[in-house]
Design brief:
two-stranded antiparallel sheet, globular, binds zinc ion, 323 residues, alpha/beta, single chain
Length: 323
């Protein structure tokens, strides 16, 4: 992400964090690096069980802080909670890692309690640097996420924005509780948002040619004038197949709605079932965003161009992007 931002700084706003799917591999990489670790297998297991989580937390915090210092425009994330990780459904990316994992007891680092601690660390670093946070959460973890936001006093306003990404699985009845947890009161009355302009969205780009990032005093972030957090709900193409997600989308105030591809995941059905412009996609990519925008605009009954302007403006506010 850091090198991508270097290549395309005019339209990429990076975020840095440890996704719950990669906690186990991150722990493993730290253990392999640890020279002081005993070569004896039994001792290794004891070291892992006792220290792996602490090692992850200490190293992650240091790495995150270093990235945020190096990238003044960066946010924090994607971080969050995923019960599938806890159940061991995430897989190592290569055979070498998979066989190494068998030597270690890393179950502790991906337990839900551990994931909640690691998410709290992300929030704490975001608070220290006053950066937005993008959060991953799946069904079955929303209550725990609410607890983490409440326990970290996000409502005190030190974090400018919380983005719940690809969040179609959030129960509608919890929506108000999430706005309360981050202290985003009366979002429909928020008149602080800039006029809609074409721009970027979340991890994906919309209307590239019009995107120009300006720098002010050597920094590329909007100066903070608001001491409270905004909550944004970001929807991917997955929402089209989710009646509950559609209801949730319609309940979100328009100035708190974002759209995203969630690429390379969540490829919209349209691209699987038939070729578009001669291309059949096997994985998602930023180029599918206009389609997602068009379909989402229908859900909220707004003209597509207007909806693009609104969500682009929202994204600029969420990620403090000057245009
Ligand atoms: Zn995610």
């Amino acid at each position: 992400m850091a090198s991508l931002q270097g290549l395309h700084s005019e339209f990429i706003t990076p975020n840095f964090g440890l996704h719950p799917w990669w906690i186990r591999r991150y722990a493993l990489s730290l253990l392999i690096k640890n020279d002081s670790m005993s070569k004896n297998r039994e001792e290794k297991v004891v070291i892992c069980a006792e220290n792996a989580l602490e090692m992850v937390r200490v190293n992650l915090r240091a790495e995150l802080e270093s990235f945020l210092r190096a990238f003044p425009s960066a946010g924090v994330g994607e971080c969050g909670l995923d019960k599938n990780t806890q159940n061991g459904r995430e897989k190592s990316a290569n055979k070498e890692d998979a066989s190494l994992e068998n030597n270690f007891d890393l179950g502790e680092v991906v337990k839900m309690d551990s994931q909640m601690s690691i998410l709290s660390d992300h929030l704490s670093v975001a608070e220290k640097f006053h950066r937005p946070v993008t959060i991953h959460c799946v069904s079955g973890c929303w209550l725990q996420l609410l607890q983490v936001l409440q326990a970290n006093n996000v409502h005190n306003g030190s974090i400018p924005a919380v983005v719940l990404h690809s969040c179609h699985s959030m129960p509608l009845e919890m929506l108000a509780a999430f706005f309360a947890a981050v202290g985003d009161n009366h979002p429909e009355m928020d008149l602080d948002l800039p006029l809609p302009v074409a721009g970027v969205h979340s991890a994906s780009l919309f209307n590239v040619s019009q995107e120009k990032k300006k720098k002010k005093d050597g920094k590329d972030r909007v100066p903070n004038t608001r001491r409270s957090c905004r909550l944004f709900l970001s929807m991917s193409g997955r929402v089209f197949n989710s009646p509950k997600g559609i209801k949730l989308t319609r309940a979100v105030p328009l100035n708190r709605l974002l759209i995203e591809t969630d690429s390379p995941d969540q490829l919209p059905v349209l691209y699987i079932s038939k070729n578009l412009e001669g291309t059949r996609l096997s994985y998602n990519q930023p180029g599918t965003l206009p389609h997602i925008c068009e379909e989402m605009a229908k859900i909220v009954s707004i003209d597509t161009a207007q909806f693009a302007d609104i969500t682009s403006a929202n994204a600029r506010v969420a990620y403090s992007i000057i245009s």
